[in-house]
Amino acid sequence: MKALAFTALALLVSAGAAAAQTAAASLNNDVPTLGPSRTATALTGGAEVSAGSDDSSVTLRAAWVDSNAPNYTVRTLTLSAPLGKGGGPTDLASLDALANSTTLEFKWSNVAVAGRQRPKVADLAEACDEARTAYTTKHGKPPADDSSCAGLAADDPDQNSKWEDLFFAHNAYALIYGAGAKVGYNQFDYNDPTTLAQESRSRTPWSVSGFLTYYGRANKVLASGSYEHQEAYADADTKTVCPVVTPPVTCVSGPLGAPKLSQQDLFSLDLRKMFSASLGAAATFTYDAHSDVWGVETPIYFVRNPSGDGLTGGVKLGWRSDKHDLRASIFIGKAFSLLNF
Amino acid sequence: MATISVNVTCSRPNWVTIDDLDVPLHNGKTAVALEPGSHTLVWALIGSPGDKFEAELKNRAASICKVSWSIPAGSSGWTGDFKPFTV
């Protein structure tokens, strides 16, 4: 049943990606570039639809953005299915009890930004010329004709600061807060403890959450605190049981009994920073007040996507206090993002 | 005056101006009235290297300004760019 649900979602994602490409092509007369995370995006009447996959799940996402300058309200609806029942080796460090469920999540975020500048065109042209000259001096040849001014400026840290000062004040910051609700679906197979007959039950885990994020331009660090209450289910303990009958005896092995309800009250602190053009990292510290367990998850990004702009791969480290073992995995396809919506 | 349609696609908070005129949209289409002559499209956004910003301005069916841009590697993510165009 779970395999069927996953297949249906995979087909949905595939169809969504194809539809998204078609819609985008009709708007722009060309097909958008698809990165290694296999995402596709389309604009449909104010909503943005994207489909994609990363190292642990496939997703279909719709976003609605209401602009009321200087604030933005972003609403997203995300359908997600795990790629494997067990998830990645470090995914459990997030303490997310819904990580192995097919889920539908609604999230609402409000984005307030302070410190935006209104650059004058003459100043932009002057800064662009300066960045072009600096590039030519540094590389001994002029840049390509189609080089963007931002790209030229980003080639040199000093030029980049001058360029970006035209758009945002040095102490500019974004304050983002929001809330979300998630409902999931799981199918559990287990052995009845009395009859030893194989049974199957579906369960509907859910969660509610809230978060507050600060992202400052000066220190280039995003810090986010969040709380999430989860009601999820887990397999009963696996056992091998043999009935007391005359031979031959057929034993059964697997979860013995119905899935168990588990509750989590997760308090998280998420830190993200781009250290250089080829190194970004995040660290998420999570505490489950219900079970008094800590988890730390640290993805380190250093693999660039084919276009060379973004970081989409690296190494992920995970640790949780009740297991006491450090786990590491390699991931590819999940883009590093400083914003958490 | 010519009625110019503006179509913006970006998954991150962005601000778009034409000359000194705010274009009140984040994602989607709107229309602005412009005098014939030279103008400049300016955009600013917050995101991460690799995040894309796309825009197209049309005078009736004719495309007069088309942008397919992404935050470059080496940027802090608080950035923007501009493109002149003619109506």
Summarize the structure in short.
The complex is a heterodimer of chains A (341) and B (87). Helices cover 18% and strands 50% of the residues of chain A.
Explain this structure.
The complex is a heterodimer of chains A (341) and B (87). With 341 residues, chain A is an alpha+beta fold. Chain A has helices spanning 2-28, 121-139, 149-153, 157-165; strands at residues 40-44, 47-53, 57-68, 71-82, 102-116, 168-191, 198-203, 206-216, 221-234, 238-241, 252-255, 260-276, 279-288, 293-304, 311-320, 327-332. In chain A, a hairpin with a 2-residue loop joins strand 1 and strand 2. The longest helix of chain A is centred in the N-terminal third of the chain and has 27 residues, at 2-28. Chain A is elongated, with a radius of gyration of 24 Å. Chain A starts with a helix and ends in a 9-residue tail after the last strand. The model of chain A is unreliable at 1-46 and 86-90 (pLDDT under 50). Chain B has no helices and eight strands. Chain B is 0% helix and 68% strand. Chain B is an all-beta fold and 87 residues long. In chain B, a hairpin with a 2-residue loop joins strand 6 and strand 7. At the A-B interface, helix 1, strand 3, strand 5, helix 2 and helix 3 of A face strand 5, strand 6, strand 7 and strand 8 of B.
